[in-house]
Amino acid sequence: MLIDRIGSAPLHGPNDLVFNREGTLIFTDPGGSTVQTPTGRVVRRAADGESDVIAVGLAYPNGLALSPDESLLYVAETHTNRILRLSLAGRGRPGVFCTLPGRPGPDGLAVGPDGVLYVAHHGNGAVVAIDRDGRILGGLPAGGNGPTNCTIADDVLYVTEDDSASVYRLRLW
Rounded to the nearest 5 degrees, what angle is found at the Cα of 3, between the Cα atoms of 13 and 149? Predict the structure, then answer.
């Protein structure tokens, strides 16, 4: 086991994770977080074993992605239908980067080499592309209503989709 608590407090129920180039692990810990009880958090565990909470009070933090230079962390806050952005250089609450239209909310995230953020918008049948300024560029059809996660490899976007129980390959925006 790598981690099961922060200090003396157990984890709520980790969900998604990302590693930076230095081997630091960052993961969401939403547990049973809701809009009414926003107990979700984002945790960072450095390669040397030091752990700290970098964001608290979130309504179900879900997918994560790092900017190409790894200075910014994007967090899908599913129950508010928002994408949050947090500077990893400082402290503070994440700011709202973008609010998605429709429901129920964002899930997995990936960032392209040009900084475009891709959001698996579960329940909406699309992967939403968002530019560096938080403007929605449009949606890419995800093969069904339930896109859950996405990643980018060799300039190709791969998306998992619940309804069809499939993995799709899409062109980047």
Answer: 50
Judgement on whether residues 112 and 64 belong to the same structural domain of the protein: no
Q: With beta carbons less than 8 A apart as the criterion, state whether 66 and 54 touch.
A: no
Give the residue numbers spanning the domain of 52: 1-99
Does the pTM exceed 0.70? yes
Q: If pLDDT is split at 50, 70 and 90, which confidence band does 5 have?
A: confident
Q: Judge whether residue 93 has pLDDT over 80.
A: no
In the residue annotation, 107 being an active-site residue is answered as: yes
Q: Which of 4, 52, 69, 107 is catalytic?
A: 107
Q: Are residues 66 and 124 in the same domain?
A: no
Share of the chain above pLDDT 90, in %: 86
